[in-house]
Amino acid sequence: MPEPVIGVVGTGRLGRAVGELATAEGRAVRHYDPRDPGGWPALPAPDVLVDCSAPALVHPVTRFCRDRGIPLVSCVSGLSEGERERVRGLADTTAVVLAHNLSLGNYLQTRALRYVADVLATMERAGVRGSIPEAAVLERHPVTKAHRPSATAEALAREWSRRTGVHATDVASLRSGPAVSDHEVRLVWAEQALTLTHEVVSLDAAAAGAVGVADWAAVAPPGAYTVHEVFDAMVAAMAESAHEPVGRPL
Questions:
Q1: What is the pTM of this model?
Q2: Which residue, among 151, 196, 202, 145, has the nearest Cα to 174 in the 3D structure?
Q3: What pLDDT digit, counting tens, does each position of 4-29 carry?
Q4: Dihydrodipicolinate reductase N-terminal domain: which residues (predicted)?
Q5: What are the structural domains, with CATH classification, of the chain?
């Protein structure tokens, strides 16, 4: 089966990284100019579209995907709830993936946080008082990122709250440093601390995730998926092909 043709919307750092990585891998890539969405219908349709643009383009992107039946990987940060609902609205006709963070490292960080939170919540329910520590999330991005806190930081805080029933004490943002990102979850007890940190040193981490998720979405049944649900499905498929058991879903 031929590899799907990947369409990319967005000329920013992530959009360029996705296009460059896919091209370097010998993939067919089609770029759709975010300044001229009215011209997209005249262009050949891709097999899957990766949107790395901005919230202002949610309407033309979703219209293009609905009209042409194109699966969508939405990587746009700072979407309002109404804009997210518009993206999810494609799910009745095609696959749509909402991707707040495309890197493998964030997926593993989140799985680790879920495991830690589940263990601590179990201990607390068993009567081990003080098992659940204070939790805080810190994210760092360059000064060019306007949205704060990042969608990834908010997602980490939600996971902690959902698993433990206790809200994070703070979700803090720092705008400084290189043009990549860091996310840290710090758990603090009276006598010790545990930190789960993910540092990105190249946007190729997100670009590689985008290409892999796009390949998955291109053949997935209609529906709305989170990026971590896609990674779960990909890991399960790898384990099945290797005849290995998959660990308990987190």
A1: 0.90
A2: 145
A3: 999 999 999 999 999 999 999 999 99
A4: 45-101
A5: 6-102+204-241 (3.40.50.720), 104-199 (3.30.360.10)
